[in-house]
Fold each of these.
Amino acid sequence: MHNFEGQTVLLTGGAGYIGSHTALVLAQWGAKVVVVDNFCNSAPESIRRVEEITQKTIPCLELDVRDQAGLEEVMTEHKPVAVIHFAGLKAVGESVEKPQLYFEVNFGSTSALCGAMQNCGVKNLIFSSSATVYGDLNQPPLTETMSTPMDRVANPYGLSKLVIEQMLKWQQRANSDWSVTLLRYFNPVGAHPSGKIGEDPQGDPNNLMPRVTRVALGIIDTLHVFGTDYPETDDGSPSRDYIHVMDLAEGHAAALAEMLKDGRPPALKTYNLGSGKATTVLELLAAFEEATGQKVKREIHPRREGDLPVSFADPSLANKELNWKTQRSIVEMCRDAWNWQQQNPNGYRA
Ligand SMILES: NC(=O)c1ccc[n+]([C@@H]2O[C@H](COP(=O)([O-])OP(=O)(O)OC[C@H]3O[C@@H](n4cnc5c(N)ncnc54)[C@H](O)[C@@H]3O)[C@@H](O)[C@H]2O)c1
């Protein structure tokens, strides 16, 4: 646990899945949290519930992060010591259909944010990157020093993360008094144990866990498992590094604490936030059934183009430098995701 008493932190996209859990952890650990979000994939209700849990007031302002003047107003009023930049579009399939939209929103918001930080003298930035930057060239365990060539990322979403990482490297180099931390998330799942906040994708969910919980609730008929013939895993289904969203939120707090430490020289840092363990789709389904007592109806389909057989992090750099590691098990991830979905079958919509 860290103490952020007296420090204001601005969260772009803070009403979303990872942002709302991070808002909760930071507020519980004493920070004054301010959220800006255009609610294109979220609702202000998530932050209202964070306020309810933490008993703290969290200003939650409707703003498109591409609006630099609007950001500058917020920064002038709230004087954040740091920004955590979650805002962006993240649906892989949609990014293949509408690459221009992904470039406009993800690059445009980051560029406007950097401009506003420069004009307002805010010098600390944490960015939500992704394991997708490792592409299909690298063999797991994936480490931060591996090369990340642009032509090996699988989709425009991944490309947007990789290019933003490079944008921020140059930004930090030109502003040597800035600290920038790039956090490469693996596969966040689960929810706060209260079941009051959780993952609430608009429309048809892309990620595995919201699909699993919807199948268990009967909202979706069957779960499609793509590929059970990968020789790289014991049961033939692909494996991923799942991380409980509360562990991920605490990883942001650890990165922020490190960044704000007295006497720490400004720097650009990159960390994997993952558990270091690979779990296959079929193992995840078994854990879900064990944790919840619910059967998950499934259909086996051929492999999906572009899916990696195995992906997991080497999280040792974050373990060492941020003094952080994942604490929560796959069973807890399943139990908490189910608890949230059961209490909120329609997400934040009543
Ligand atoms: N969830 C994952 O599996 C995952 C994995 C790796 C990286 N990430 C990254 O982490 C970040 C947060 O992801 P999440 O899962 O919480 O997604 P999310 O969609 O729940 O949260 C993103 C938030 O950004 C907001 N937003 C989008 N465009 C905006 C804009 N132009 N102006 C203001 N707000 C805007 C959305 O309304 C939403 O509240 C994203 O950048 C995502 O790419 C997510």
Amino acid sequence: MVRRHYLEKMAQYEPIPVSSLRDQVKQRLTGMPKKEFNVLVVGVPGSGKSSFINSMIMAVTGTWHEVAHYSERFSGRATHSLERYVMFDDNCKEVHEPHPIPDYKQNVIFWDCAGFPNANDEAYSTIVSLTLDGCMPTGTNVVECMDQTPKQLRSKFTQKVVPNTFDRIVFIYSADSDVPNNLVKAIKSGAKEGHDVPIVLVVTKIDKCPEQDLQQRIEEAKGATDLKGNRVRFKKTSLYCEELTSFPDPNDYRVMMPNEEIDRNLLNIWMSLTDRNIKAKPAENESCCVL
Ligand SMILES: Nc1nc2c(ncn2[C@@H]2O[C@H](COP(=O)(O)OP(=O)(O)O)[C@@H](O)[C@H]2O)c(=O)[nH]1
Ligand SMILES: [Mg+2]
């Protein structure tokens, strides 16, 4: 009897296959309202923002395409500007291939915005606030804006250039570094100024953090983003990267080897991000299909 209960309980927790989860995400993306769904991705340079954007595409399509430029450390191409990426546009597939999500309306947009660990609170929170207002044009050099006063910034960016509002902020925190508390503060205060955008925390590079430090860093990052105890708006994962997932043959045109665990984490992030019930302030015992 006890054993039967145990087995029933275990069956309840049996994770669904990654392929079913992927189908759910595709359905979710297809069924989204027609208007743009804008996601602002912030984090310090090198935390994995570009890798996150590319990995979120790979988790759904199964193939690697460098949509957002990554590995700036090695190429010397540090992106310090605001970049706009239409997720699953035609760059996510080969020319001769059918689209991996045929009825998807190409309306999910990720914005890659560099943040800085010692961000001067005021300037950076104004930059976040102006971005969320839709007043920062693509390509704006964020570093050059950092030494300006909020007033100067507000008088410089007065025109609304992004027609829709932002729906989510993803804060990328790399587990191999200290929590950039100033940056988190600046993002929170910029997001508050009349926007009320839900913040989702993604802890990356968990492979680079010793196990004994990982939990402490996660708790610190959750504390900073007010997400203690929340499972829906928080996910820890490694991302697709040369160090972990490249094909053994460096000339392999596929570049990255699919990885079930990374895909499961990222597909769950897709489900949380696109959950319509997520409001700016987390409800108590918030739940979503975290599988
Ligand atoms: N080991 C490891 N490396 C990662 C991970 N995520 C990203 N990287 C690497 O970290 C470096 C910086 O990533 P990138 O996406 O360019 O960061 P960004 O500056 O925030 O856009 C690149 O070399 C990535 O390949 C991860 O989870 N594990
Ligand atoms: Mg980048």
